[in-house]
Specification:
- By secondary structure, the chain is an alpha/beta fold.
- Helix content is 44%, strand content 18%.
- It is built from six helices and seven strands; from the N terminus they run H-E-H-E-H-E-H-E-H-E-E-H-E.
- Strands 1-4-3-2-5-6-7 form a seven-stranded mixed sheet, sandwiched between helices.
Length: 179
């Protein structure tokens, strides 16, 4: 009987300590941005070489490319490169996006594109861009877009563009443009 009472007391104490234990905060969802939010991001990084990549969990080439971009962000951050991700998933795919971010643990900030006004957003990023993913855009220190990779890019393509971007002090050079 004493053993049983001790066991019940132990279980109740364990349950109470679990309930009273502080819970870890869930990671914050990426902030939702529209055209003006995108332009603020570009402005925020003025003076720094910037790569902005657009991705979605439903985009297989994006899923393949994202870990490589995360590695490149780690590799080139000490040399001054800044990377920002913008997710194009629908609100219904929010759980998938959270899982994706939890899995890959990006070293760079991510945002979510606000739904609606797709054509306006796409044209603000690159006139003539149809929103196809993946897509990455390179901005020189003066805030000008100097190159892009539309569709899946190889590590070599990205590294060449990043090295050009880092070597471009005045923004007069151009990163590769691949479609």
């Amino acid at each position: 009987m004493k053993t049983r009472a001790a066991l019940v007391a132990f279980v109740l104490c364990a349950a109470a300590s679990t309930i009273a234990a502080p819970q870890a905060n869930a990671p914050h969802d990426p902030r939702v941005i529209d055209v003006q939010g995108y332009q603020k991001i570009v402005e925020q990084y003025r003076g720094k070489p910037l790569l902005i990549t657009f991705w979605a969990t439903w985009c297989e080439p994006c899923r393949d490319e994202y870990p490589m971009l995360n590695e490149l962000a780690k590799q080139y951050a000490p040399k001054g490169l800044y990377v920002v991700g913008v997710n194009f998933d629908d609100d219904g795919d929010l759980i998938l996006m959270r899982r994706f971010i939890a899995r890959y643990k990006p070293v760079f900030p991510n945002y979510r594109k606000k739904h609606g006004n797709e054509a306006e957003f796409e044209q603000a990023v690159l006139p003539g861009w149809n929103g196809s993913l993946p897509a990455s855009f390179f901005y020189s220190k003066d805030g000008r877009q100097i190159g892009h990779v539309l569709g899946a890019g190889t590590r070599e393509t990205f590294e060449a563009a990043i090295l050009t971007l880092l070597a471009t002090d005045s923004g007069t050079g151009a990163a590769p443009q691949t479609n």
